[in-house]
């Protein structure tokens, strides 16, 4: 039966007999990707037959099959000259116990998925020389411990998934910290609780993970803001996902936690897959100053630069506070909040109201709750002006930033979200 097939040796799941149907179709030569997940693939079949039947295959899914060794995988891949992506998840593979001789079999491979294959870190490094252009490597749920630094291997990897490997700790991560092209690192569900970059001082940048742009630390044990402070030391970090951690799940005010993270990580542009707009960042940073301004003063902070000497404990807990003072100016006593950070109280704002397109309209003064949403403010002016709510556009000018107009773009956000204060000017257009 083996000689009758033109491709992989596939067992029929019901009869456990070899099934030649896969290779009897004339359309295989035009395929570019193929999924044989759960097909009981157990070998490569007659040499040369796969290459004859499937010359253009670039992506292959062999997950949840009966492959038992890396040699079998090498045989199959050797028939696919254009192979770029290979999924071997949930095959209990026997990997080489020593370095391999280079065969060029995986010379075009860019994506390799080895989740739940039982591979060790040492075996990854032994096989890695065979993957000279690999860009994405998935190693989830293998019980991996990172035992040594990759030297002259994995240097092209841009994405590394180490999720659900609970043996990995902070010190082990430093062994992969100098992969030069690593842009995405997925560390979900590894039990991570702390992180510290010893080469960077407070407010400085670490030389570790120089290219890292996207970090995923979902489902861990992160409970301290010191962890978030450390992430600001990553020089290229633009996106972070950190849901389902004690730090983020324990708060009743999810929006408050989001604003704190934004204020603490300067270069962040996306948090938990939600884009951070400039207006949101500005509001988060100004509120951060107000929320911790009293603590800053008690620690030795002062509006007078010559007398501004916050202690080391405050600087360690709030490493960006002084940078925010340089950006926006030091908070005045009247702005400092006594309540807990970002608690939205039903306080009244006294605002000037202008109608820029109606020059004959007098400037008014109104008191609005700072918890009032943009949508409700639009509804109020819709009734006052007798115009459809959909036609109304709102923006405001801050006393602190004269000449700059800030749009109120999100109808669901309260006025306090935009850090509006007494005396600011609300601009109403329609």
Automatic annotation (TrEMBL):
Gene Ontology terms: biological process: cytoskeleton organization
Keyword Repeat: yes
Coiled-coil regions listed in the entry: none
Key words of the record: Leucine-rich repeat, Repeat
CDD domains referenced in this protein's UniProt entry, alphabetically: Ubl_TBCE
Transmembrane is among the record's keywords: no
Protein's UniProt name: Tubulin-specific chaperone E isoform X3
């Amino acid at each position: 039966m083996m000689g009758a097939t033109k491709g992989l040796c596939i067992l029929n799941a019901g009869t456990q007999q070899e099934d030649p149907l896969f290779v009897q179709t004339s359309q295989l030569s035009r395929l570019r990707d193929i999924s044989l997940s759960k097909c009981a693939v157990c070998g490569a079949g007659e040499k040369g037959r796969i290459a004859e039947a499937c010359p253009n295959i670039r992506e292959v899914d062999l997950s949840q099959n009966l492959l038992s060794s890396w040699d079998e995988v090498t045989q199959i891949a050797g028939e696919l000259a254009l192979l770029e992506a290979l999924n071997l998840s949930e095959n209990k593979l026997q990997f080489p116990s020593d370095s391999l001789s280079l065969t060029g079999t995986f010379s075009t491979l860019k994506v390799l998925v080895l989740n739940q294959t039982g591979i060790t870190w040492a075996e990854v490094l032994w096989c890695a020389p065979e993957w000279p252009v690999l860009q994405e490597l998935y190693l989830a749920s293998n019980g991996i411990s990172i035992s040594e630094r990759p030297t002259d291997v994995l240097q092209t990897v841009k994405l590394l998934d180490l999720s659900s490997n609970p043996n990995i700790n902070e010190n082990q991560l430093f062994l992969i910290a100098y992969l030069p092209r690593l842009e995405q690192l997925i560390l979900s569900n590894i039990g991570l609780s702390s992180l510290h970059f010893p080469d960077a001082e407070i407010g400085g940048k670490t030389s570790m993970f120089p290219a890292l742009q996207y970090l995923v630390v979902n489902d861990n044990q992160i409970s301290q803001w010191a962890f978030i402070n450390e992430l600001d030391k990553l020089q290229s970090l633009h996106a972070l996902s950190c849901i389902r951690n004690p730090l983020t799940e324990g708060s009743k005010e999810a929006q408050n936690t989001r604003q704190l993270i934004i204020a603490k990580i300067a270069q962040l542009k996306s948090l938990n897959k939600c884009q951070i707009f400039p207006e949101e960042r500005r509001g988060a940073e100004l509120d951060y100053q107000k929320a911790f301004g009293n603590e800053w003063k008690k620690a030795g902070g002062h509006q007078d630069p010559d007398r501004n000497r916050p202690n080391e404990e405050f600087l360690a807990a709030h490493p960006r506070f002084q940078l925010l003072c340089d950006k926006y100016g030091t908070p005045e006593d009247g702005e400092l909040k006594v309540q807990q950070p970002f608690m939205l109280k039903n306080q009244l704002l006294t605002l000037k109201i202008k109608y820029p397109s109606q020059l004959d309209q007098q400037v008014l003064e109104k008191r609005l709750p700072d918890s009032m949403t943009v949508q409700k403010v639009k509804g109020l002016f819709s009734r006052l002006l007798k115009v459809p709510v959909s036609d109304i556009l709102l923006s405001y000018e801050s006393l602190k930033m004269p000449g700059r107009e800030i749009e109120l773009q999100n109808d669901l956000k309260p006025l306090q979200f935009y850090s509006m204060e007494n005396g600011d000017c609300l601009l109403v257009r329609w």
